[in-house]
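Data deposition worksheet. Section B asks for the primary sequence of the deposited chain exactly as it was used as input, without tags or linkers unless they were present during the calculation. Section C holds the resulting structure in token form. Section D is free text for depositor observations; keep each observation to a single sentence. Incomplete worksheets are returned to the depositor.
Section A, Depositor: J.P.
Section B:
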Amino acid sequence: MPRIWLLALSSTIATSALLGCGSEDVDAFPTAQIGETVVVEGTVTKVDASAMPRDGDGVIRVSLESGARVEVLVPARIPLALKESGDAFRHLTKGDRIEAAGQLVRQNTLRIADTTNYLRRVGR
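Section C:
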């Protein structure tokens, strides 16, 4: 019986490794430095505005063709100059394709931080 349990555990670990492989560990911006402006285009996998009523950032999770997953942070108090980006955020749903430019704040996370940044829905 211990052999069967060990085989099942090994199989579960191998399957988990295969299913989780790459996506979170793939650096979407390997040559970019923190603080630089980066541009992404990909498919929305989740939109979370739950922190925005408390002046937190809205979060868009995006899957890129490279297999990397990134987060785009949209500030609750978006400047008037970025109103178009705020409007785009409010209308996003899972499956939409977006293009976003923002400041790299940590690996695979960018924040729409100034008037040179943007968020656009580019398709479905």
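Section D:
The beta strands are 37-48, 57-63, 69-75, 97-106, 109-111, 118-123.
Residues 41 and 78 are 21 Å apart (CA to CA).
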